[in-house]
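Support reply, case 0932

Customer input (verbatim):
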Amino acid sequence: MTCRVVAFLLSAGLAADLALHLFEPRLALTWSYAHLGRRAGLPWLALGLLALLPAATAWAWRRPGAHRPIGGLSGWWIGIAAALMAVVLAVGLRWPAPLIAIDPWMLVQSVADGHGQNGRWYLLLWTYEHLAALLRPVLDPARFIRTISSLLATVALLALAGAARRLGRTRGEATAITLLAWSAFGTLQLAFGYLDVYPLALAATALYLWTGLGAIQGDTHPAWPLAIAALGPFFYIGLVLLAPSALVIAREAVRRPAGWRRLAAGGALALAAAGAATLPGFGRPFAWSEVWARAVADSSWQLGLSPTSSLLPLDFMLSATHAREVLHTFILVDGVGVLLVLVCGGWLVARSRGRGCDPLAAFLALMVLPWVAYVVAMDPLFGAFADWDLFSYGAAATSLLGAYTFVHWGRECPRAFGLLLGVALAAAGVHLLARLNALNVDLQHHLLESPYHVQ
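Our regenerated output:
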């Protein structure tokens, strides 16, 4: 694909996304793009973003500073990280994300009781219960969870910025990737005092991405990402989706001097960590069969559309209704990132034929592909709308892969890149204006569009 073809496809996709938000057409499903019109000033803010950001980014991309190499971290970054954490925590506690399903209160009740069990997130629950007991004179269980969720989301934002530094060649590229990653709804909505387990899943995913990219580039010992991938499912079972991408880490590790030794040491540490993870709840290491049995028992598979599985029945999985819900899930969680993956990722694949595989893109792709399969196959018991956060943390991978392939395209097509970067950021910003902390708007209508699957 030529520069003009990619620019046209991106422009058309971003225009369609913006049209959904600005005109809010009443289609079969509306929950992914409504409600920009809930307040009189929001459409004007959206138009302001669309008018200002493309011109601003096009100007900034022509400045010499955007093309300087990425420097090392200085003491300023500690202050920036502390300020970011303070802002996220303050906003999250003052304007916490509204609840649209009942399952978060199960976590609150488990933490309040101090002896809850759930095999899907057993180690997270164990950790939360013990920390909450120490802080109970200061924080009640719900406020404790909102606080720790904001802190975990801040860790995720910082890790995504670190990943952007590994993916970009210049300050401008790293900044562009960071902004595209931070503006994904699935990432930012979890930052504001989210009352559920998913901020932990987001933080673990972002840390894995950051350390995994470092391991591929030879800057980080593979033990770090492998340990995160091994421990992750004990905190939240969905983090098993990290495993396929570890193959790229292993492949790149053995290509370096002493690579087999480093990989063996990392694998041994990951194995030991996974073995020790069962000690708190089961009293012995490597009690993996017991963890699996409890996770199956606590998965509530019997409540969904299939009487025998947590996955959707094949007939529903192949239905037009489900196809619409998957599309709207993509739009809600990270519409801009998914569009960039499809268009710029397709361009990168076509361009790379015969040139070898880009290990960074392959690593990120093996994060995105299992997540897509998860979105398609997993049964959200409260419906795709109310259970959207089941898939939220996948935005960390889609946004990074989309942004990475986008800046990769921009290196060869710089004339259009600055302007399209502004349009992409404007589209992400308009989506945030429409949906951030607003999933409870017109809740009953959206639940009729995407009803509970609980039998």
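We compared this against your earlier run and they match. Two observations from our side: The radius of gyration is 22 Å. The mean pLDDT is 93. Please reopen the case if you see a mismatch on your end.
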